[in-house]
Amino acid sequence: MKKRIWRWLVSAVMLLSAAVFATLSIGATDEIQTIDDRMAIQTGNISQGSELFAGVDDDFLPVQTPLTREELENLKLYPGGMPFGVRFMTDGVTVVGFSDFEVNGKKINPALSAGVKRGDVILRVDGTPLESAADLTERIENGNGAAMTLLCRRGKKEMEIRIAPVYCAGENRYKTGIWVRDSGAGIGTVTFLMPESGAFAGLGHGICDADSGEPIPIRRGSVSDVTISSVVKGTAGDPGELKGYFNPGKVGSLLGNSSFGVWGVYSELPALSCEPMSVAPREEVQDGDATILCTLADNVTREYTVRLSAVNPTSDGAKCFTVTVTDPRLLSETGGIVQGMSGSPILQNGKLVGAVTHVLVNDPTTGYGIFLENMLAKMPVVKEG
Description:
It contains 5 helices and 28 strands. The chain has helices at 69-74, 110-114, 133-141, 328-334, 372-378, and strands at 3-5, 15-17, 34-36, 45-47, 76-79, 83-98, 101-103, 106-108, 121-125, 128-129, 148-154, 157-163, 166-168, 173-175, 178-194, 199-202, 218-232, 241-246, 252-258, 261-266, 277-279, 288-295, 301-309, 321-325, 345-348, 351-360, 363-371, 382-384. The strands form 5 sheets. It has a 20-stranded mixed β-sheet that branches. A two-stranded antiparallel ribbon has the order 1-28. Residues 1-64 and 381-385 have low confidence and may be disordered.
């Protein structure tokens, strides 16, 4: 069998300074029925000059090639279950709101009038790529009111919007009336690791835009260790959450974000709680007893009992089966599945079968899981002889 290694794409050195905070979704919601098991993520501005986003050489581009059946059957991975923190920069800046301002006694909003919408991602200004929110602000304020062309991505389409900043005498600067974000941070759970390369994957769903539900294009990111400080117990209609904080320093790089999870590479591996395990192909996953690995406020990764049902071996999405928590300890502490447990590895019959992804809003004891095979299908890998 050919050996597989993971090769990663990461960009240049940048610094995340979370000077402004807002709440984002770290995954897509499913109307009112389910919510991804997620935590609030913080957003802020970017400035130059830090090692937080230093990573792998840009020449190492990820190549996505599906695993053969033989390769899947011979693959062994270390289950995760430990929390991890991510800080990331987006590709372009995202419009998160509008703020009217007064000119000659009238409230105006040039961006809104020009057709900019909340959720638009501004990629370029007059043909030049944007580096950050601060970069956009500088171009607006230093343009002396000259009209500029924004290249925006709205959903899967790109469009150009012509906008003319207007001088605001009260603030002595040119403005367009938009709020944007260019970065974020959040907490999730590691699904599996490959210690030989430091590669890992987690969440089981993407870090998604709260408005569109689409995975946020991530340009570069860093990984930090996390300490869980408390647990908010979930109740019907009010999903709970793991609360925690980032430990100082960087232990790895975040390198990709898809609808089936995030992936990256550790430079400093976390402690491993299990020996490597074989991966179960989707057809081997069965209705019945299983366990999950997750970390609560004692910051010890533990194994808890669950039951799998409604297993759909043909599913190629992120909701492949139902996960119901049966462990009295976990029910007592969390009420079931809470935000932040997303990515918790699921074990059955001595194999790694998948990860927790969502929780039912009206029943926190129950959620959904994704086949590990589906997560692997989105991970960028290359074959070597």
